[in-house]
Structures are given as structure tokens and as C-alpha cells.
């Protein structure tokens, strides 16, 4: 048996996380838990006022960079600016930013479908591509994607969102086969129904849908943002040093509920 020499295997001291969509919702919840675990965080988003307020609330370990991740040609610039803001290299990338589109498939235009894919999938790939060289050179890093229960189960009126989140599963698996032997781990979390502005938007004016969700969730409640945040801390920590290629549901049992 090998004894670990890490004093606290769940600590993220000396780690710096770039979190897209980090100023609010799940991104902020993830950032809060990472800070509590000892990491520096760089919040990325388009609204400076939101980012500034979030960084101030998180304290001295937090900074922010205003950026639109759909400007894929500027991904490397974002990584550089984030390293400058944190005064340290990015060792954790959280691909969390996204948009929600609630529409029946028959009413979803190709343009709308493509917009969702560009934000979730193509932009996440561009940023991952930009951050990987440094991680590979240092032989240390974690890339994490925020997937969804729609990566596993069918839900109506979210065909574009479901396609994007399902793509993350393939990206995680493929990336793992390329970089796992070079010190970089790639994983994803798949939040179930977590209390957030995006969930409120998805359930707005649809009480029947809310009831169905709770009925199929064995814990019969919505999750909290910190439930997702602590799962991220675990996957990025030394405690999970032998985990790569994992898509971890954080869903109160919904994925296996009946």
C-alpha cells in the first residue's frame, strides 16, 4: 500500500483556475468552493459589473477578465490575460459558460442551433486548445467541462442544449486518451437540477415540468450550487489523481431514478 504524502488531498493550494461564466450561477458556486479549497480563481464573462462584484465578494484570491469566449481567435489571449491577472499560470480550466435555448426542435432554426453549439462546444475547444500547451509543458493540469443530465437522458425543448452537452462527453473521452499520460486530467461534472438563474429560466411558467423533475429525482429536491462546486474541487484535487475521462453526475440520483 502506498501512503500519500499530500497533507490534505482535497486542497488546491498553488492552483489557479480559469472559470468561464464564473461571475454568477453555477460558475460562481464553483469559484466559491475552489477559493475555499485554497485555489486562485479568474472569473471570465462579458459583464464587467457582475465579474467585479463577484471577485470582490470572493476576496483576494479572485480576479476577473472581461471576455467573450465566442471570439475563438482570442482564446490564447484570454489565457495570457488570466495568468497576468492571477500572477500565476492557469492550471485548472473550467469550461462552464453556456446559453440556454428552450424551444421545440421543430421550431429551432439552424442559426439558433449553431449559436448554442458555438458557445458551448467550439468556444470550449478553442480555450482548451489554448490552455493545453502550458499544462503539457508543466506536466500538470486539469480541464473540466460542465456537462448536464441532458448528456444522458432525453428532455423535450432543449435539442440544441442537449446536443452541446452530449458533445462534452465525447470531448472528455477523446482528450483523456491524448493527455492523461502527460500529467493533464480531463473530466466533467453533469449537474442535475441545481438552483440557479438558468434553472429558473428553464422552468419559468412550467409548474408541471418542475413537478416531473422532482418526482424523478430520488432525493426529491433541487441541488445547491455548492454541491456542484465541491464535486469540482474533488475532481481537480490530488484526491482524484487517478481519475480522468469521468463524467460525474451531481443530480440527487436523477440519472438512475424511475
Automatic annotation (TrEMBL):
UniProt similarity note: Belongs to the short-chain dehydrogenases/reductases (SDR) family.
Name used for this protein in its record: 2-dehydro-3-deoxy-D-gluconate 5-dehydrogenase
InterPro entries hit by this protein: KR_dom, NAD(P)-bd_dom_sf, SDR, SDR_fam
Enzyme Commission number(s) of this protein: 1.1.1.127
Domain Ketoreductase: 15-196
GO molecular-function terms, A-Z: 2-dehydro-3-deoxy-D-gluconate 5-dehydrogenase activity
A family per Pfam: adh_short_C2
Keywords: Oxidoreductase
Organism: Novipirellula herctigrandis
Amino acid at each position: 500500500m502506498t501512503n500519500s504524502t499530500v497533507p490534505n488531498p482535497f486542497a488546491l493550494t498553488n492552483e489557479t483556475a480559469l472559470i468561464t461564466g464564473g461571475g454568477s450561477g453555477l460558475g460562481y458556486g464553483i469559484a466559491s468552493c475552489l477559493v475555499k479549497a485554497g485555489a486562485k480563481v479568474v472569473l471570465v464573462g462579458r459583464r464587467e459589473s457582475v465579474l467585479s462584484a463577484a471577485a470582490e465578494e470572493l476576496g483576494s484570491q479572485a480576479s476577473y477578465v472581461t471576455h467573450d469566449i465566442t471570439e475563438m481567435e482570442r482564446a490564447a489571449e484570454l489565457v495570457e490575460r488570466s495568468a497576468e491577472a492571477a500572477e500565476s499560470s492557469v492550471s485548472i480550466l473550467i469550461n462552464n459558460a453556456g446559453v440556454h435555448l428552450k424551444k421545440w426542435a421543430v421550431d429551432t432554426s439552424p442559426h439558433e442551433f449553431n449559436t448554442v453549439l458555438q458557445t458551448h462546444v467550439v468556444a470550449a475547444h478553442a480555450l482548451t486548445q489554448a490552455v493545453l500547451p502550458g499544462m503539457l509543458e508543466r506536466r500538470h493540469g486539469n480541464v473540466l467541462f460542465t456537462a448536464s443530465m441532458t448528456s444522458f437522458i432525453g428532455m423535450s425543448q432543449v435539442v440544441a442544449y442537449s446536443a452541446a452537452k452530449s458533445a462534452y462527453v465525447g470531448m472528455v473521452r477523446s482528450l483523456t486518451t491524448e493527455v492523461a499520460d502527460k500529467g493533464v486530467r480531463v473530466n466533467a461534472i453533469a449537474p442535475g437540477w441545481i438552483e440557479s438563474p438558468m434553472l429558473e429560466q428553464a422552468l419559468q411558467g412550467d409548474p408541471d415540468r418542475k413537478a416531473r423533475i422532482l418526482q424523478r429525482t430520488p432525493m426529491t429536491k433541487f441541488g445547491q450550487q455548492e454541491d456542484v462546486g465541491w464535486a469540482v474541487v474533488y475532481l481537480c484535487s490530488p484526491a482524484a489523481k487517478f481519475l480522468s475521462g469521468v463524467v460525474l453526475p451531481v443530480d440527487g440520483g436523477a440519472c438512475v431514478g424511475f
